Every structure is written in structure tokens, then in C-alpha cells.
Amino acid sequence: MSLSPELAAAFGTVRREAFVPDGFQRRDGTWATPADPDFLATVYRDDVLVTKVDGRVPVSSSSQPSLMAIMIEALRVRPGQRILEIGAGTGYNAALLASLGATITSIDVQQDVADRARSALARAGIAGVRVEHSDGYAGRPGERFDRIIVTVGIAGLSPHWLSQLEPAGLVIAPVDHAGTHPVLAVHGTPTGPVTAAVVCPSGFMTAAGPLTADYPGAHPPPAAAGDLTDFTPTGPPRFDPPLEPIAYRDLWYAAGAWSRRATHAAASRRDREQSCLALLDEPLTGGALILPDGSVLTAGPEADAYATEAATILDRWLAAGRPPMQAWRVGLALTGDPQSPIWVPATWELPR
């Protein structure tokens, strides 16, 4: 992607290695440390750096730089703006934002993560960032912000953020949709209307607490390979060659807009796991899988019905001209726990 000169300069001057002094987990599960010969080369790959795990589950990281860049560009940062960041991570994202001339308040629900981010920012000599340990759902009561950026996967937006946002402000956030976290650019007020446009596909670690609360009509949670029964081919391939990853994500997004059963499944295929668009049945063990080549696999007692739904989604996406996810306009609705509600995607429209 093409970066603005200001953001390119920020990436060129803020040292990413300063924010992972204790190392990070490699893709193969081993731990990289600053003493390793390939440490710097690995740090500067366009890849996520997992910095904290709970058992085998990653719970904090430095996001993929290209994704950070897309989200920061979408935030439209200007010098002097006040930005609220939900999810401090390593502090690297806040450092980039501060380098663009903004003043940052960064919140993380994990005390040790907030402490390490604060130390890294000080060590790197980054001014203009305040890191606090608190629940991001509440935001910063009594304060106002020009922009809000969320660096963790959420089910919906807190009304508190919208009440703390200046009238011309916006929120950039990865919001759950069919088992993934597409990044949305959101505008609105605490009482609505709240609308959004899709920025890009993404996958993020999931937040804790009210920000990931279940709500009526939510898509099913992602399914692991061991959760599914054996799926058998039902519909033939439609795409030769198969859809590229971006186009497959576009189809996936449309499926999530048209079916509340759409989600992510890690399916076992040819002795390996494959990330698939799935339409899961109520037991979450069967339904339909739509593969990148457009073929459909089904399982379970309602296999025929799910095969029909999968075929309908494919037909509808093709008839609509294979729209990219960025074409959709999203309306959000307030739902969830009445004591801590969230704004979630509820309506989708393709402009004519």
C-alpha cells in the first residue's frame, strides 16, 4: 500500500524492536529473543508479533504493520488531535500515532501489558502518550476525543466511546462479522444513528468483558477442526482458478451479511487445516462449507437446506457483481446486556 509521507516517516523513525524487549513468539511456537541472530530481521517482517500467551492462546501482540498502517490512514490523524486507543499492546501503535502529532490515551485491561507498554514508550523516548490500566468499555469518562482506534477484536462498540467522541470524530475498530474482524470506520452518536463503512479484512485477538458480549442474532463462534463432523462434497467448483484470498474474504463478508449462520471454520482438508467460510447448523457440528473454488461441502441432518443456502449465497454474490467488502454500508443497532449494551452491525446495504 502507499503510505502518506507523514506515516512513512513515522514507521521509519519509531523502532519496533524497542517495543518487544522481552521477545515474542514465533510462528512455530518458539520464543525469539533480542540475542537471536535473526531477531531484527524477524521484527521487521510484515507480521504480527505475539508478546503474551495464556497457555497456548495469544492474549497480547504487536499487530501486523501493514494492517496498522491501513487503520491509521483510515483514522485520518492530524497534529493536535486527541486519540483514545483501546488496547495498548506493546505501545508501538500509540508511538506511531504520537509521531503524527497526536496526543494519545491508551487503555489496556491487562495490568502487565499496560505497564510494559508504558515502559517501552519511555525507553523509546516517545512523548504525548498516556497509558492506563482499565476496562476499555468505559473509555475515559469526562474526557473528549477527536478519534478512537480499537486494536482488539470486539463484538460491538461501547456507547461510552460515542459519548466521548467529538461530533466530527470517528471510530476505527475491528468488529466481529462471520467469525472474523473486518475493520469498520464508524460514525454516530450515543443514541444513534450509528453507521459504518468497511475498511479492510482483519483478524484480531478478542477483547474481554462487555465488548465481546453475546447478543441475539450474533453469528456462531468460529469452529475448530475437531468440532465438526465429516463433510462431504455437494456442489461442484465454480471458480477456476480459485478465488484469491481478498476475493474470498469479499464473498465471506457478503455471506455474513446475508446469513446469520455464517462463521469461520478450521476444516481438515487433505491432512491439513484450512480456514473456511462456514454456515453452521444449530449444534455447531454440521451445515455447509464454501471453499475458495466455490465448491460446497455439507454435513448433518439439515445438510440439504444448508447446501441450498450456500448455493443461494454464491448465486447472489455473483449476480451482485462480486462486490468487495468495502462496498457495503452498515447500520448498527444497540443490543446486548442492558447494563452494558454495545452497538453491533445489524443491517447491510449495497449502494446501487
Number of domains: 2
**Structural category:** alpha+beta
Order of helical and strand elements: HEEHEEHEHEHEEHEEEEHEEEEHEE
| % residues in beta strands | 25-35%
Morphology: globular
Keywords: Cytoplasm, Methyltransferase, S-adenosyl-L-methionine, Transferase
Main location: cytoplasm
Protein name: Protein-L-isoaspartate O-methyltransferase
EC number: 2.1.1.77
Describe the 3D structure.
With 352 residues, the protein is an alpha+beta fold. The chain folds into two domains: 5-212, Vaccinia Virus protein VP39 (Rossmann fold); 225-319, no CATH class. 23% of the residues lie in helices and 30% in strands. It has eight helices and 18 strands. It has helices at 5-13, 39-43, 65-75, 92-99, 111-123, 159-163, 245-258, 303-319; strands at residues 24-25, 31-32, 49-54, 57-62, 82-86, 103-108, 129-133, 145-150, 165-174, 183-188, 194-200, 232-235, 262-269, 272-280, 287-290, 296-299, 329-335, 342-349. The strands form four sheets. The chain has a nine-stranded mixed sheet with strand order 7-6-5-8-9-10-11-17-18. Helix 7 (245-258) packs across helix 8. 45% of the residues are buried. GO terms for molecular function: protein-L-isoaspartate (D-aspartate) O-methyltransferase activity. It is found in: Cytoplasm. Belongs to the methyltransferase superfamily. L-isoaspartyl/D-aspartyl protein methyltransferase family. Pfam families: PCMT. Its EC number is 2.1.1.77.
